Amino acid sequence: MNNKKIVQWQNSYSVGVKPIDEQHMELIRLTNKLFNSCKAGQEEGNNAFLEVIHEAVDYTDYHFGTEEKIMERINYPDYAKHKKEHTEFVREIFIKVEEFKSGKLIAPLLFVYFLRDWVLYHIAVSDRRLGDYLFLMKRNGYLKRISVRVRRDMMTNRLLIK
Q1: Assigned CATH topology for domain 15-161
Q2: Whole-number Å distance between alpha carbons of 16 and 135
């Protein structure tokens, strides 16, 4: 299958926090994978779409967990608003997946465009604010360094932020 891209990572998307930027790149890769799953035949495409959407939902949960742990750690003033955006997005995704499974959502491609637009908007606005806040905290001496290492504890499946 010819893999086309609905969105391409650009340096202008960077929020300046390496783990978050790397995770945003992965979200864009998954969005492109989802886009390509829509190009297969009806049944094959629907199965591929469901498989990729579950992968994307799992990764989105991981990514949001990373951002939220960082925001908690630095006592980010817009934490509640940012977390609410995450919660509403996840709720919308689950609704759309259920609509797709029940046959109400007929055009998976529209879902892919929704996903792309939401991710890019969230990166450009909310995540950029978080990156700017971290930069200002560092520049003003409130953070000795911004060194964020993210990994999963395989025993508990919890995120460890250092």
Answers
A1: Four Helix Bundle (Hemerythrin (Met), subunit A) (1.20.120)
A2: 8
